[in-house]
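Work Package 4 report. The design task specified in the project plan requires that, given a folded chain encoded as structure tokens, an amino acid be chosen for each position. We show below one input record used in the internal validation round.
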């Protein structure tokens, strides 16, 4: 299922949602040098330098680097000698990784979800609260992924953890919103008008299923980051949302005479 549009109009232009999308695209194209040729992947060195590597968090003072063959080696690992090249502060990568992506489809999918659901979450709170909610959601998502793979040397990147927090918040605030969704069945595509709770609940259930049947690293997909971000949004959205649109589902109600 691919959500395309919801039915809740915003009461103000979502300037921060647009800014976040612009920052993600800028980082991907100009700093990661991704997408220059069709669906090209970004530079591997940028992923290792600015992506979140759990090993660096759980082994303070130890850094990782890209070595021959495209592998990642970390100081202190068995069989690894020498020092890594100068690296950004490890805790900086906790947030820089939130604005990085692994390919065109990765960033396109994330930005679609951010645009559809982020504008209403931004509209539900003050500007500074939205920035804090988004960044904290991404940080909590990163912690969740580190918890299940503390010694992983695979760089974690992507806005999906922070966006998962947005989805969790949306599911709690606007469960009766309607979402135009593209449903793909092999060679057929149909558009359905579905309740937001069904779309987002189905997305979360899929993350739980994939996390259960895959290894903690999920074949390169941070399912536990998605789960951690969504739960964060679900549990804490009420602490941030101070201007919720209470009449969002008025168009769906039956008239009373």
């Amino acid at each position: 299922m691919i959500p395309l549009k919801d039915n809740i109009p915003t009461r103000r232009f979502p300037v921060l949602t647009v800014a976040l999308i612009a920052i993600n695209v800028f980082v991907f194209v100009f700093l990661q040098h991704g997408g220059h040729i069709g669906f090209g992947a970004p530079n591997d060195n940028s992923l290792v330098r600015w992506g979140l590597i759990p090993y660096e968090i759980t082994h303070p003072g130890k850094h990782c680097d890209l070595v021959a063959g495209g592998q990642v080696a970390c100081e202190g690992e068995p069989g690894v000698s020498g020092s890594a090249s100068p690296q950004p502060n490890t805790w900086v990568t906790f947030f820089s990784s939130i604005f990085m992506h692994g390919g065109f489809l990765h960033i396109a999918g994330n930005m679609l979800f951010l645009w559809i659901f982020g504008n209403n979450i931004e509209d539900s709170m003050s500007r500074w609260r939205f920035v804090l909610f988004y960044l904290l959601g991404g940080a909590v998502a990163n912690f969740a992924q580190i918890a299940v793979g503390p010694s992983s040397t695979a760089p974690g990147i992507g806005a999906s953890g922070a966006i998962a927090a947005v989805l969790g918040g949306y599911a709690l605030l606007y469960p009766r919103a309607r979402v135009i969704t593209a449903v793909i069945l092999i060679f057929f595509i149909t558009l359905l008008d579905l309740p937001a709770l069904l779309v987002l609940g189905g997305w979360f259930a899929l993350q739980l299923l994939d996390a259960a049947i895959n290894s903690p690293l999920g074949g390169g997909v941070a399912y536990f980051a998605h789960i951690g971000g969504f739960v964060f949004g679900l549990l804490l959205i009420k602490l941030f949302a101070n201007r919720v649109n209470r009449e969002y589902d008025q168009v769906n109600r039956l008239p009373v005479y």
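Strands lie at 2-6, 64-67, 71-74, 178-185, 188-195. Validation will be extended to a larger panel in the next phase.
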